[in-house]
Design brief:
The complex is a heterodimer. Chain A has a six-stranded mixed beta sheet with strand order 6-7-8-3-9-10, sandwiched between helices. A four-stranded antiparallel beta sheet of chain A has the order 2-1-4-5, with helices on one face. By secondary structure, chain A is an alpha/beta fold. Chain A contains ten helices and ten strands. The two termini of chain B are 24 Å apart. The model of chain B has no long low-confidence stretch (mean pLDDT 84). Classes of the chains: A alpha/beta, B alpha+beta.
């Protein structure tokens, strides 16, 4: 398997030192966790319209460089929680701090700058249908103002890494569900975000590709990215050596591993 | 904005009705503006050519006394400070003027024909002020103020000119409304793409720029088609007017400066479309998170 780290560090090298400093397992966590909290929720509630609260009294924090799984039954509110994380939604109440700043009262014009620091894998992929796989993956870089000549190489490499180098010019409609999912993942990680949020990122791929994609997230995590993955797939969770888990049930957080505590307790692999 | 950025919105620029609606609007706008400019030219020409002139008729039936009075009236008019130039119409011009009514050789009989004196006044001079002086010198003189009988025609032309300009203003408003509707429709059509762009960190201005460009291209296409069609119509109408041989209608033909002003309309249309699209899209995006 081609190493993903050099590929990811090609664009934004500022966190490249982390992988050398970290290694795997608890040691790595120690190095990465020194930079503090990246996400903090205090008593957060979310209500759509006038209905009942979808999320209630969420209080937790995520460390910079942590790897988190978000689990829970269907309808527990996982996607809603992720929407709060990737700034698609503001909470109905409570405080959310992202990258150390209160994003609940933040002026709207400042949100794009924060969103560029977040990579998102949507459950429904949300690929732009009239763009090729290449252009979809290049989207965050173009939005960020990266020159065309600087993005050609990394985008092509990323597509090759997710096994879609030969489908770079294909439109999403001509890709299978699994291929679309890989394009969506490549798009989410191409700009090497500080926070990666993935909603059921391996739901449509075979187990081998799922492991490969999870390895991608893990590599990104080693480079300093905080990763939050919402999934039902317990087998997937077991394939990651070190992680913390957030469990949602009917809009509230349970605390099976101590992830809700301040500071959160590390899960045992 | 690079070619890759432009692809963020799907192609199919001329698929919608907006370019054609703008073409129709531009066609009507150019015609209305041309009418306004032509009428303005006609009004100016009328004012400069006839409005500031008086015709003095010496009605004395006795030819000898008529000649004496005509000579006195000419001398008196030349002496007046309000008069810029003065001349008596020679017999051949008089004959040409009267020929439609009297036929060829109509002036050769005993019919008393008044002597006619054409006087050009200085700008702002009033014909009323000439009357006492001229009638003192030539008692049978009658002064016709051309401006007086031209005034209703001038007012009509002026009203038509303002009506044409009003129509241009209405067309501009209607074009702007078309662009607003088109921009809103485009936003609805591409809402999914816009949401993705926003979540990737695109600013409102970045998103608006994509739509601005698309709408500007549509407006340019529509503007050029509309202008081309209107220009063709104006050239054909101009040829028909020329064939009439009418001085008044001929003066409504457009000079080069007017054509230049009309040619600016598609450019202004593109600018207007871009501004309106940008404002509409930024307002709509501002309501999204």
């Amino acid at each position: 398997m081609q190493a993903i780290a050099p590929l990811l560090s090609g664009l934004r090298p500022r966190a490249a030192h982390a992988i050398e400093a970290g290694g795997r397992g608890p040691e790595r966590r120690r190095v990465l966790s020194t930079s503090g909290t990246i996400v903090q929720f205090d008593n957060v509630g979310l209500r759509y319209g006038t209905g009942a609260e979808t999320l209630s009294d969420l209080s937790f924090s995520l460390r910079h460089g942590g790897f988190y799984f978000l689990t829970g039954p269907s309808g527990a509110g996982k996607t809603s929680l992720l929407k709060l994380l990737y700034l698609a939604q503001r909470p109905s109440r409570g405080l959310i701090k992202l990258f150390g700043e209160d994003i609940v009262t933040m002026p709207r014009k400042r949100l794009p700058g924060f969103r560029r620091r977040i990579g998102v894998v949507f459950q429904d992929f949300r690929l732009v249908t009239h763009l090729s796989a290449f252009d979809n993956v290049a989207l965050p870089l173009r939005v960020g103002g990266v020159d065309e000549k600087d993005l050609q190489g990394p985008v092509s490499e990323m597509l090759a890494w997710v096994g879609l180098g030969h489908r770079a010019s294909a439109r999403p409609a001509t890709l299978s569900g699994g291929e679309q999912q890989r394009v969506a993942i490549a798009r989410a990680v191409i700009a090497r975000p500080e926070l990666l949020v993935a909603d059921e990122p391996t739901g449509n791929v075979d187990p081998e590709m799922a492991k490969r994609l999870l390895h991608l997230f893990d590599s990104l995590n080693k480079l300093g990215t905080t990763v939050v993955v919402a999934t039902h797939d317990l087998h997937l969770i077991s394939s990651i050596g070190s992680f913390e888990m957030l469990r949602l049930d009917r809009g509230t957080l349970l605390d099976p591993t101590g992830a809700l505590r301040h500071p959160p307790r590390r899960a045992e692999a | 904005m690079g070619a890759a950025d432009r692809r963020l919105l799907p192609e199919g620029r001329l698929a919608g009705p907006m370019p054609w609606v703008i073409a129709i609007m531009m066609f009507l706008t150019v015609l209305a503006a041309a009418a306004g400019l032509g009428l303005g030219g006609a009004a100016s020409s009328l004012g400069a050519g006839l409005g500031n002139r008086v015709t003095v008729q010496i009605l004395e039936p006795n030819p000898d006394r008529r000649e004496v009075e005509a000579a006195r009236a000419l001398d008196r008019l030349r002496a007046l400070p309000e008069v810029e130039s003065v001349r008596r119409l020679p017999p051949d011009e008089m004959a040409a003027l009267l020929e439609p009514w009297l036929g060829a050789g109509g002036m050769e009989g005993d019919l008393p024909i008044p002597a006619m004196i054409d006087a050009q006044l200085i700008p702002g001079a009033r014909a009323d002020n000439l009357s006492p002086s001229v009638t003192a010198a030539a008692p049978s003189a009658r002064i016709d103020d051309n401006g007086q009988w031209l005034a209703p025609l001038g007012r009509l032309i002026s009203a038509l000119k303002y009506l044409a300009l009003g129509l241009v203003a209405l067309m501009i408003g209607a074009t702007a409304a078309t662009v607003v509707l088109a921009a809103r429709a485009a936003l609805d059509t591409h809402r999914g793409t816009i949401e993705v762009l926003h979540l990737m960190g695109a600013t409102d201005v970045q998103v608006a720029r994509l739509f601005q460009r698309r709408i500007a291209l549509d407006a340019l296409f529509g503007g050029l088609v509309g202008f081309g069609a209107a220009a063709l119509a104006l050239v054909l109408i101009g040829q028909r007017i020329g064939a009439l041989g009418s001085d008044l209608l001929g003066s409504a033909n457009l000079p080069a400066t007017s054509w230049l002003a009309l040619a600016l309309l598609p450019v202004l249309g593109v600018g207007l479309a871009m501004l309106v699209a940008r404002g509409t899209i930024l307002r709509a995006l501002g309501r999204m998170l």
